[in-house]
Amino acid sequence: MAGGLLILVAVILLSSGLLPVASAVDVAERTWSILLFVVAATVVAELAAAAGVFDAVADRLGKAAAGRVVVLWLLVVALAVVATVFLSLDTTAVLLTPVVVLMARGRGLNALPFALTTIWLANTGSLLFPMSNLTNLLAAHTLGLDAWEFAALMAPAAIVGVLVPVAVIGVWQRRAVSGPLAPAESQPLEDRTLTLGAGIIVAALLPALVSGLPVWLPACVAALLLGVLVAVRKPAALSWSLFPWQIVVLAVGLFLVVETAHAHGLSDGAAPFVGQRTSFLALLRLAASGALLANGIDNLPAYLALEPLALDPLRMAALLVGVNAGALVTPWASLAILLWHERLTGLGVRLRWPIYMAASLVVAVVTVTLAVAALSLAHP
């Protein structure tokens, strides 16, 4: 609904001349490959879930936990980080959440720390590689960085983005993530051939995404291979709903509307608030501005609004810290939070927004501050 309205607004802006045709063409040339990757990666994640890959991995984690809840939780942390870094934050928030929640319930555990792990790490952990977050893909394209160059820039902040939420959950939910782990019956695979084949395709995709190839290419190949495999073994899982139409339409609308705002002086108006320097305080100011804007209107438009003021690599890194790791507090700060909450509601997990927002505020403030400090120290 919102995406459709934004597209309508963009068409009106374009037809009225408020959005120059040349600017719209530039947006299309810049974003087609990014949006193609988003579509392909989403299809890969959805088909992998339908093939039982995530369920099988979760079952193996339970066996590897050595009878301790804390070990199981730390293994979930590792799984959430890998899923976020390589398959994007939406994969972790939307597809991994129900898997780990059901896994926790099946062992008589409180599902809250596992649910918080997926959503906080989906956002704060999405700093390392371009494919971890749509904002990262845009930033890497703007800076002209490949996956490893981007990782070299963002690694200090990415490490902080993992450690802080894990520390907060470990302290706050220490009783829930401690003690012996009750055994659970191993769930038989619905179709071993399907799960194994899908797992091999996903495992091959991960290194391909950081191989130097354009990320949309291996993602599209993996999506095609998974589509063929699922069509043969589980055809009922194939549907048009696999494609993230709403996200793509929303993104296209935002790209064009914000580009119109930039054409009419948005950057000049925002410049006094975010500064231009690369000192620690200047970077923190930029990151805080991105976080505030993200929690006010969503992280993607926040990034698009401030990107022209962050073209220096270090300033771009600080902006990403703000709009990714800082986009935790309000339910609409990132689409991942809304989708995560929808999944929790479907699972019957109660979430008190005031408590969530208060805890997320602590995580966001500490993460953004320490991540910017880490960037400043690593890139003086």
UniProtKB/TrEMBL annotation:
It is found in: Cell membrane. InterPro entries: Arsenical_pump_ArsB (IPR000802), Cit_transptr-like_dom (IPR004680). Residues 7-318 form the Citrate transporter-like domain. It comes from the Bacteria. Keywords: Arsenical resistance, Cell membrane, Membrane, Transmembrane, Transmembrane helix, Transport. The chain crosses the membrane at residues 34-57, 69-89, 109-129, 150-172, 192-210, 215-232, 238-258, 317-341, 353-378. It is a multi-pass membrane protein. GO terms for cellular component: plasma membrane. Pfam families: CitMHS. GO terms for biological process: response to arsenic-containing substance. Belongs to the CitM (TC 2.A.11) transporter family. This is Arsenic transporter.
